[in-house]
Write a structure and sequence with these properties.
This protein is 66% helix and 5% strand. With 177 residues, it is mostly helical. It has 2 domains: 1-91, Orthogonal Bundle (Rna Polymerase Sigma Factor, Chain: A); 96-162, Arc Repressor Mutant, subunit A. Helix 2 (28-45) crosses helix 3. It is globular and about 45 Å long.
Length: 177
């Protein structure tokens, strides 16, 4: 049983909620709004968590759902963000370190259904089955999306001059050309 206070949960999970939201929407202000909405929902519902992983999965699932709702809302379609004029605040370096920023841009260029599974699998290190639960879909769908996303990433990174490496059957790393 996870016996953390709301403040402790915020301290522990607000960063991951923000990163998931930013990965999905690409806007700092919208990501902050999502963080606020996720924790308001937590305070209203006060769900019981079995352990830390259950809590983290709940926060990520709610963040994904809140971001989707925000992206499709009528209000969002009619409002132009002031931040569109201040691009530096929405730069990936504001959320990710400089080494991750270029890769982040390529991941963000993928369709949302691919970018979110890449983020959850490789940045948050969730198992495919856990991602399927969070996104309310099947393991097969997530596996398919990961496969397609990796193929798209490989193509995009190759266009930008990056080498692509894979592990062979023995676990050795080999460059693909």
């Amino acid at each position: 049983m996870c016996n953390m206070t709301a403040d402790e949960l915020f301290e522990k999970y607000s960063d991951v909620v923000y990163r998931v939201a930013f990965m999905t929407c690409g806007d700092r202000c919208e990501a902050e709004d999502v963080v606020q909405e996720v924790f308001v929902r937590y305070l209203k519902r006060r769900p019981e968590f079995e352990n830390d992983e259950h809590a983290k999965a709940w926060f990520i699932r709610v963040a994904v759902n809140c971001t989707k709702s925000l992206q499709t809302s009528a209000w969002k379609r009619k409002v132009v963000s002031v931040e569109e004029y201040y691009d530096s605040e929405n730069e990936p370096s504001a959320v990710f370190d400089s080494e991750e920023s270029e890769l982040y841009e390529v991941i963000r260029s993928l369709p949302q259904k691919y970018s979110i599974v890449i983020y959850l699998r490789y940045y948050e290190e969730y198992a495919v089955s856990d991602i399927a639960k969070m996104l309310h879909t099947t393991v097969g769908t997530i596996s398919s999306r990961l496969s397609r996303a990796k193929k798209l990433l490989k193509e995009e990174l190759s266009k930008e001059g990056y080498a692509y490496y894979e592990r062979d059957e023995q676990g050795s790393i080999a460059q693909n050309v």
